[in-house]
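During the second half of the funding period, the structural biology subgroup turned its attention to how the target accommodates small molecules. The most pressing case was tryptophan, which had performed well in the primary screen but for which no bound structure existed. We therefore specified the complex as follows and requested a full 3D prediction, including the ligand pose.
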Amino acid sequence: MPTKEEFVVTPYEVKGHIDYQRLKELFGTQDLTPALLDQIRVRAGGELHPLLARGIYFSHRDLGETLDRAARGQRFFLYSGRGPSGPLHTSHLLPFDLCRWLQQKFDAPMYIQITDDEKFWVRAGLTREETYRWGLDNLADLLALGFDPKRTRVFFDTRSIGAMYPLAVDVAKKVNFSTVKSVFGFSASQNIGAIFYTALQSVPCFWPSWYAGRAIPCLIPCGIDQDPHFRVTRDLAESLGYPKPALLHSVMLPGLLGERVMSTTGDSKDNAIFLDDRPKEVERKIKNALTGGRATVEEQRRLGAVPEICSVWALWRAKFARDDAEFDEVTRGCRSGELLCGDCKSRVLVRVQDFLSEHAKRKEAVRATAESLIIEGGERSDGSGPVVRGEIPLP
Ligand code: TRP
């Protein structure tokens, strides 16, 4: 186990107590400053998404340039993705909740990548049929968040590969083994699928520019654990004649059992709320969730609790507070000792259960059309770009 000072953040491993300030320095990313947030607020017509306002997104690369260009008329598209390995949990929604809002506010096309190859390559115990089926299921969950089908397309790796492969070939030629070895910590026994994989995750960054034959800026909201892939992408972008993708990074939310990250790899299913959890399961998980409460009621009334270390407060903060007023009320009540953990848990439980039941209905409604958004095709005979079925939304 790493000590408190040691932590590891890569796309394939997140462990230890993450010091985000230090991580920004290590990765060389920029602070998401109040000035940048103001710029987004103004462009969004005066509001800011809670994930931005509450500091869950905290770091970026080239966001200022991307917003400045957009203000001058060179608009961007959004890109984020999911490596399917099982059902989604609520933390997986962070990038997509933000993307849906940005799509609406900035009238931006959205590209979702479903990497049904990735977890098959990097994780034991999953068949390709499983990652494929989870991919389709996860895609329905993501589309149920309310993306505009006219402005949204999907790269589903095993199905979109014909339309992606020529670009993946160009990218792969620019990435050498020693780079991925040091960036991801691969050993010599790593399968070559995982070694090649960064090329595939890079493709959507450039694909719309390739398709349109002009430079189109890309903005990627994602967990900071994905930054290493895009460092590789950004380093080779200009040599291929494409703009470097810009990034907006979120923190990794704590799990319900207090592990630093709401990950389910290797830990108990009780550490996260899955979108397909039954109401009873959600109740049990929230009851058992680790809080920032005191040992006794008396002590809590006197000293107040500590929201920053509480997994239930993290739920309010990231998704379940109705508005800023409610979020502030919960936070103040927690800190002052007025709101006890049991009451706070009962309140959030209702919110989570309502969300899950509404979400399930929306998911069923989008399931039938989800596959029609998958990009499929190949390359033009003169090599100048892809040929695909159907229309491609561009900024
Ligand atoms: N690698 C990501 C995962 O493990 C999936 C992914 C593909 C992604 N493309 C992306 C994530 C772009 C963020 C942005 O889930």
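Two results from this model are relevant to the next phase. Residues 11, 79-83, 113, 115, 118, 201, 220, 222, 226 surround tryptophan (CB under 6 Å). The first strand starts at residue 7 and ends at 10.
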